[in-house]
Amino acid sequence: MEIYIVDDYQQLSMKAANFVASQVILKKNTVLGLATGSTPEGMYSRLVQMNHEGIVDFSKVITFNLDEYLGLASEHPQSYHFYMYNHFLAHINIAPQNTHILPGITGDIKKTCREYEQKIREAGGIDLQILGIGINGHIGFNEPGSFLKVQTHLMGLTKETIVANSRFFPTLADVPRQALTMGMGAILQAKRILLLANGKSKARAIQEMVNGRVTTAVPASFLQLHRNLTLVLDKEAASLLP
Ligand code: F6R
């Protein structure tokens, strides 16, 4: 595990964007696993800039998003579809057919999950998976519990996650209670993983992830088993590390 600790969010975003750009420059048809949330916003914004400056070309890149809220249509402003297009995909030269996001509205959840797994396999698996981390140690929407699932699946969100994500919704009652998420399998099978975290609220999860036991109570702790994991943290998120 490689850990970079930077001074602030601006530096975190720059470093993360350089990391992703160097991957895409080296391998034009990189398969990227994408995360949403507040943490990678600055990274996406810098990558858009780098694309416009001609530094990085996304025309051959394939993307798979980690998760989507169940029940939110892609036009819903809080859907992860909306987020991804708004912050990144609509502003770069990526081919729309190369972008994949789990649907928030689907008639057959099991089939949708199976097909998503199949598409990831057909693309050859994920080259670089970008991750944030929940304050409870979740990755994607693989929430803490007595077990974790390997495959893409439907997940009930924990109270902690619902409260944390309510900042984006008018009221707590508006936050979806369930989401579709890639499982631990596709994440851990990614060739490289880049995890970003900033702010004091993430310090405990980062400390448990880096130094704690490997346990389903902290899904991110399983990343300790990955052979090519890079963390980019700001000082606050790293503040509980020895
Ligand atoms: C988002 C995702 C989540 C977030 C995590 C942190 O696609 O998979 O695991 O990465 O909840 O979210 P932020 O960055 O908003 O603190």
How many strand segments? 10
Question: For the largest beta sheet, what order do the strands appear in spatially?
Answer: 1-10-9-6-2-3-5
Which ions and ligands are bound to the chains? fructose -6-phosphate
- Spatial gap, N to C terminus: 15 Å
Unreliable residue stretches: none
Q: How many whole angstroms does the radius of gyration measure?
A: 17 Å
Q: What's the pLDDT, averaged over the residues?
A: 98
Largest sheet: 7 strands, parallel
Share in β-strands: 15-25%
Structural class: alpha/beta
User: Overall 3D geometry?
Assistant: globular
Helix coverage percent? 25-40%
Order of helices and strands: EHEHEEHEHEEHEHEHE
- What is the multimeric organization of the chains shown? single chain
Number of helices: 7
3D architecture notes:
- This protein is α/β, with parallel strands linked by helices.
- The protein contains seven helices and ten strands.
- It has helices at residues 9-26, 41-52, 80-87, 109-122, 159-165, 184-188, 203-211; strands at residues 2-6, 31-34, 62-65, 67-69, 99-100, 128-131, 153-156, 178-181, 192-197, 229-234.
- The strands form two sheets. A seven-stranded parallel beta sheet has the order 1-10-9-6-2-3-5, covered by helices on one side. The protein has a three-stranded antiparallel beta sheet with strand order 4-8-7, covered by helices on one side.
- α1 crosses α2 (41-52).
- The chain is globular and about 45 Å long.
- The chain binds fructose -6-phosphate.
